[in-house]
Amino acid sequence: MDPWPRVAWVLLLTLISDWLDTALSRDFTVKDIIYLHTSTTPYPGSFKCFTCEEAADNYDCNRWAPDVYCPHETRYCYTHHTMSPAGDSVSVTKRCVALEACLSTGCTEAGHEGYRVCTSCCEGNICNLPVPKNESTAIFSTVTPLNSTCSLTQVWMPRFTIIFIMLYSYI
Q: What residue range is the signal peptide (predicted)?
């Protein structure tokens, strides 16, 4: 038999065994650690917002927004949208903010030139995708109620009172 087919089979089997070793081994490399680092959250409950400073429009802002987590002291995504008298975008600013920055959302006239400024806030991961354009979209939307700090007595005391009255009336 000719030696070339044997050599071809040995080379093919060697190539397949090398391929299996690389396909089955999964040791972390520096590239893997860098890739995974961006997907891990820096703290529990962390979130991301679109972030930009005075972008030309919403598309430019969202397209070039850095993919980073918001600082721990922030809780909301803020959007500031300035429009020309014709309704075209002049500038868009988006960032992570604390509650104080979200207390005055809505639309106002900016100067005598007819420019309009609308601000909105939202709570949630990347919730500031659209820009506010009018009063119905320039709002402060939350997932959790702002007065979520109710105590146990505020919740259970009325229930205990009703139960106590019902039990007392049967005695």
A: 1-25
Q: Which domains does the chain have, with CATH numbers?
A: 44-141 (2.10.60.10)
CA distance 101 to 76: 9
Per-residue model confidence (pLDDT) at position 23: 46
Backbone dihedral angles phi then psi of residue 54, each to the nearest 5 degrees: 50, 50
What's the pTM value of the predicted model, to 2 decimals? Answer: 0.63
pLDDT along the chain (171 residues), means of 10: 70 68 48 52 82 94 89 94 95 96 93 91 93 95 71 58 64 61
